[in-house]
Amino acid sequence: MRINFKGFIDTTLRDGQSSPLLYDTYKYRFSLAEKKQIVNALLKLGVRFFEFYSPVVSEEERKSFLILKKYIKSLTPEKTYLLAHCRCHPLDIQTALGLGFDGLNLYMGLSEEAQENYGKSLRQLSDLIGEIVISTRQKNPLLWLRYSGEDAFRTSLKNLFLVYDRIAQYVDAFGFPDTTGTATPEKVGQRVRAFKKRYPKVNLECHFHNDRGLSLINTMAAVKNGAEFIDSSIWGMAERSGITSVTGALLNFYEIDKSLVKNFNLQFAYPLNVLMASILGWQVPWTEPVSLTNRTHIAGVHQKAVLGHKGYEAHQLEKFGITSQQLLLGPLSGWNFIYYFLKEMENYIITPEEAKIITADFKKQTKKLGKKIKPEEILNQLAKSHSLTRTSIPKKFADKRKENLGI
């Protein structure tokens, strides 16, 4: 199957505001100023599709969208698409169109459970959806229009095809959401291929929840099998365990085929993650591929390998805005890093043999480590007790000094 990835539908300002992280951090919702920061950073990254709540959700969301619409259009001359996430309901649709959205992301479930919840048969749902989609398209020929069968991976293809066949010529995209996070890469590949075979001229947009920890690998499977669009957010923030991280997906696309990310400014990936960290007052999650954590080394064998050969780090994270790495002192540090730390960072005159002795003493004292006692303090005390002397190096030279320690 030919890869034809066209971009991300960013849903940070919609599904992202449903993330438990906003409650864990007592944020609850993004302020207007924070929303401006978020969309500005996403635009710099190269995102052009933005999904918002239906304006009927709240007056606050309606007002902020009107301001953000003008703000986004003022930031870039390139075409952007501001999309409203709407029920297949006239109130949602009419309100969104009245506010000037560029498109509608319509949804309605088709599973057995959905039919029971709506109190309608599949045929009745098909008639309702068909009437709404066709009428909306006829009245708005230039509108970006997507329809999604909610919880698509727990809905039979027979049910989905019954409705999708009816409206295929009227939509720009079909959504294929893994609403409850049950999909596997194998099932994703099978279903995406089936959809692209049946609807080769209609864009396919996939939305993967991370309940099983599979959102990112499901994203890779979808794109490899022909999906054009992926729903994503900063850090993968969304309901429950979240969805696909936009920067995590970019890193993996880069590994698959660099041409997939040619329209993105990768150097803004890590700054985007740091921005969200500053908004929430958290660190970038350790599970986020594009993070300084992914360049942090603690075990002695890892620290030695990184000190001896930069190629030990396999991913070119500097292309994604991560320009430094961390080697952290602690109980697992070996003599190689302690030698490096005392010689290069603290400017002690020290031999490898002395470093080995100090390392043994250091490990005996690591039980003291905590919030009040840092490993650097213990090492400096040990250096003094072993009568090591420091060299005096002017800062302008010390900052530039790089030494091959031969370890």
From TrEMBL:
GO terms for biological process: lysine biosynthetic process via aminoadipic acid. Residues 6-276 form the Pyruvate carboxyltransferase domain. It holds the Pfam family HMGL-like. PROSITE patterns: AIPM_HOMOCIT_SYNTH_2, PYR_CT. InterPro entries: 2-IPM_HCS-like, AIPM/Hcit_synth_CS, Aldolase_TIM, LeuA/HCS_post-cat, PYR_CT. GO terms for molecular function: homocitrate synthase activity. The keyword Transferase applies. Keywords: Manganese, Pyruvate, Transferase. Gene3D superfamilies: 1.10.238.260, Aldolase class I. This is Pyruvate carboxyltransferase. It comes from Candidatus Shapirobacteria bacterium CG11_big_fil_rev_8_21_14_0_20_40_12.
